[in-house]
Amino acid sequence: MSGARVLVVEHQENAGIGLFGERIAAQGVVLETVGPDAGAEVPASLDGYDGLIVLGGSMGPTDDGDAPWLPATRRLLVEGVARGVPTLGICLGAQLLVTATGGRVREAVAGPEVGLHTVSFAADAAGDPLFDGLAASDAVAVQWHYLEAGELPAGARLLASSGPCRNQAFRIGEAAWGVQFHPEALGGTARDWVDEDRQGLVDLGLAEDAVVDEVLAAEPELRRVWGAVADRFAALAEAQVRATSAPASA
Hints:
By secondary structure, the protein is α/β, with parallel strands linked by helices.
């Protein structure tokens, strides 16, 4: 066992940690899930945790009236950035990270991205602690967003883009990342989201079965690419344990 503990903020049950959780847990990292459907409140701080993952959801990053746990989640994201705790915001989680740190979220200018899409990583991703292995390459990922990070906070480092959405992956500070896509999602999740978002697919002219089948066909590649990223996040959480437990130098 690594001894690392990662806090997972889940906004709704059908948007769980999926593949990412499988791979992180396989490394011996303990995942503690909080949120309305998990039956546990978002804690006031990251004390006792070695990582933070904030998942996606159908609400917006400032819909506090409908989702009253969002202010506490934004505070945790700010804390993660400030303390250098390995932090990952996925889709809504990325939008919350941007909102909490001085950036701006807007409706997707080029329209929603739904289903399987390609994300292009910049050469500048080389050396990044989480995405180094994807520098200067393209990767397929599940997308499901109607909003986007329109303006990143000052000092953020852009790591990946797509044609419709410039800010697909970015890093804030030393150890906080946001991704607009869903590295945790596989075919089962895509089916759940189709069931929830039927009218959205009609509006976009997308066939439900085609969206799900495309994701299912890509599962081996999704597992290979994003499973490796999950392994890297687990390693960062393990390194955080070592860093925080090391005796202070004289």
